[in-house]
Amino acid sequence: MKRFNLLSFSVILISVIYIARLFYLQLLENDYNIPTLNSSAVKVVYDYPERGYIYDRNGILLVANQASYDIMIVPNEVKHLDTLEFCNLLKITKEDLIKKTEKAIRYSTRIPSIFLAQLSKTDYAFLQEKMYKYKGFYIQKRSIREYPVKSAPNVLGYISEVNEGLIAKNPYYQIGELIGTAGIEKTYEEVLRGTKGVKYIQRNRFNKEIGSFKNGVFDTLPVPGKDITLTIDSKLQQYGEALMANKRGGIVAIEPSSGEILALISMPTYDPNLMVGRERSANFTKLYLDSISRPLLDRGLQAQYPPGSPFKIISALTALQENVITPYTTTTCHGGYKYGSGAGSFMKCHCETGYPIDLNVAIYRSCNSYFSNAYRKVIEKYKTPYEGMNVWNKHVESFGLGNYLNNDLAVGQKGNIPDGDYYNRVYPNGRWRATATISNAIGQGEVLTTPIQLANMTATVANRGFYFTPHIAKHIEGVPLDKKFTTPNYTTIDKKYFEPVIEGLFNVVDNPRGTAHWSKVEGIDICGKTGTAENPHGQDHSIFIAFAPKDNPKIAIAVFVENGYWGSRWAGPIATLMIENYLKGKTNRPLVEERMFNGSIQEEYNKQIQGNLRH
Amino acid sequence: MRSKKNNIFLGIDWLLVLFYFILIFLGWLNIYAATVTEDEYEIINLSSEYGKQIIWIGLSVPIILLILMFDAKMYEKYASIIYVTSLISLLGLFVFGKNINGATSWYGFGIFSLQPSEFVKATTALAMAKLVSEKMFNLKNLETQIQSILILFFPAILITLQPDPGSALVYGAFIFVLYREGLPFYFITVGITALILFISTLIFGYFITLIASLVLFFLILIYFYFYRKRAFKRGWLKIIGIYIMSALFIFSIDFVFNQVFEQRHRDRFNILLGKTADTKSIGYNTNQSVTTIANGGFFGKGFLEGERTKGDFVPEQQTDYIFTTVGEEWGFLGSSIVIILFVLFILRIIQIAERQKSKFSRVYGYSIAAIFFTHFTINIGMVLGLLPTIGIPLPFFSYGGSALWGFTVLLFIFIKLDANRIYEW
Fold first, then answer.
1. Contact at 8 Å (CB) between A284 and A396?
2. Domains of chain A with bracketed CATH
3. Which PANTHER family match (chain A) (predicted)?
């Protein structure tokens, strides 16, 4: 190269390199240039749609929205603060002020953060006129929940600030946003919340906003949340809660023909409005820490109890299906059932018959011997008890027992229905026989169910052999119901075996010698079954399952009253009152009703606490 | 004849003048875009930087006329005096200088400041032209070599001490001139090698540099041993000698840097070399600058429509980072056109320089082509994130009176010299 060409050559070479660099930056990198959206140049402003309302099946508004006001702080704008006056105004201490300010500074000195959350309308009206005096503080309006009906907190759930773990998993949520944390708010979070709108705002490096970013091409409009109509009958729910006053337990009522949950009661309950507003976290902590009555435990869904005598229905149906008994098979009960040679191998019975009884009598007198015998015949029909146990397990689980119902409720428990493997684990040498598991026949022993499982089992019997998965959402604006809620699940029991069992259940209430005859309601054919489940912590649980009317049933219900002594004492009247209330719209048994409203088992619960303290 | 000589516009290269005004006009548009705010948008607004720039542009016209009025021969005749005077003006800064942004590079005249180093480029070019055009000048000669280097050394060292090492770097441009005028090629080789060793030692440390250079020299030895047997026999001692020299050089850099320099010097170098991750100042600048340019896309956002320009994200956008405005608002298309304009402008200077009959004019022209080229390369290279952050202006684009007038003087002395070539016999 000639010497005088070096400079010209360099000029051209450098310019080619620079144009290539421009090409790379402006044409290749620019294609994925959207990351500038996350840069400091662009402020993201969210436009929150109104959360969907929640109605009961008759259109009664259960959950609405109300305005709430947060006091926001921008730490580096705070100037000349009269702390004493300010603290008095907000009813906080100086320590609170310092702590809250430090927390805000830790987050950011320039970006607003919440100083005091969720003030009521009255507080706001008072503060509104004075806030202008305090530089760096302002009031931001938000939308929070309001519960016009003080009922069913376990069903409705609540919303709370999203936690950091969830923010990391789900990019939709930003710090400080609200999310459904329990109940229907949780399961239908995305439906209720809608989709927030996003606005991108261009700003300069002093964080001053200077207009819309790229003329708003990335901006989105908010999609409003959808309203949900629940399957819950709010009047029935409230009536049930009133009946359960001062008693612990759960009630689940289901419409058998659809699987819709009419009432889902967990006692003790609390006012859902406690989960809203400035006192929310204090209230939550109080409820959460109450380890004695555990109000946050949804007893209808989460409490696992031995089902007791209502489980005899399953024992009967299983034995009929396996052809080991017929409705006319008789057993004579001599005050109990001896299932072994040892002195301890004896199950007591209170059926007080003493003569050969058939299936019908066995059901309405709740004879332990009859069903133990039938159960043993099922297990012993097969070569090994292991095999027999598995066959039995298959039948029982087809009623939706022993597993999650896989529905639209936020919580649940599996319960327990043992199978052959279960007993192989309990007796590792494999030497166990039907008699070792005999308590299963009468719903004791290893069998555990939740009230909703029991209610679903009742609905299955009412339907004569199938059930729709129990669910809580009846209708969502513009969204069809999940198919799994509209497809029937069939049991392994033939339809023909249900009628004789239902006849027995009808007699439980109808026959003067039936265990729940006292709960008979004029004009309604109720089929029911009492239960008294032993439990190691205190008095027996009072259980009652029922459906009505006998033909074309409209409601199936399971009532569990913890430590309620026996089935017909609390659970029976409560269940039948609810049926009466639901079917007739009113009840005609003021004395019974009065006794339920005012009856309390608190003393029994107190005894347990004292007992625990003594240990 | 006399009347013709009185016409100061006679013989001037109108093409260069056209380039000059186009570049200044485009530059001003971008300064306007980078500094205009929504509440003040009048073109004549003396409180704003785009308004002041109009004044600087206006005042450059009498400067041009003044330059053209002088006899071209005067520049050659008084080159030494002009050069020495300008060096004194640099020295005077240490006494009367005004400190702006940490560098004492300005003389303050009330509201307005003048940066003499912007004009010293022109005086040094004159001095160099004068030296090279002397009859005894021979760059193979050690004495000449030393003289040439001293002419560059004085302004460079005075500017470095201001401290404004970026502006001092521009004097490296004269390597093109000296090479053009016969500087042996090995000077360039040695210069580039020294530069590479210097940067490598500062970035990677002396140990790695030493090992790497040892491997390289070993490979060269092997190459010579197998493929250039004869050269190897003659030169192996020389190759080993060069390596030993390099090793000593590396050690001395390390020693000077860590023992002689103070921390603030080291910081400056480290930042210059991108060794210190300084995201808040230097790293921040480059990041903002590159992002802003990328935001332009092919056609750009349009005049006054650049989001990041409007958002004032790029620091010093109207001065050193003015090209980011071009990049964002005019896109790939506009930026490429601006680059091509600069290329044509510089090539035109070289072309005219090569046609000069006077050696003085040729060397001067070649010098200013190299200076424009160096500014162009360093400034745009920095803005595009290809070179470390060295704050020197982009000719005719960057805001600032001194720089504008400095480049104007630089260019129009050459235009005058060129116009006078018809009288050179």
1. no
2. 49-74+84-203+222-230 (3.90.1310.10), 234-614 (3.40.710.10)
3. PEPTIDOGLYCAN D,D-TRANSPEPTIDASE, PEPTIDOGLYCAN D,D-TRANSPEPTIDASE MRDA
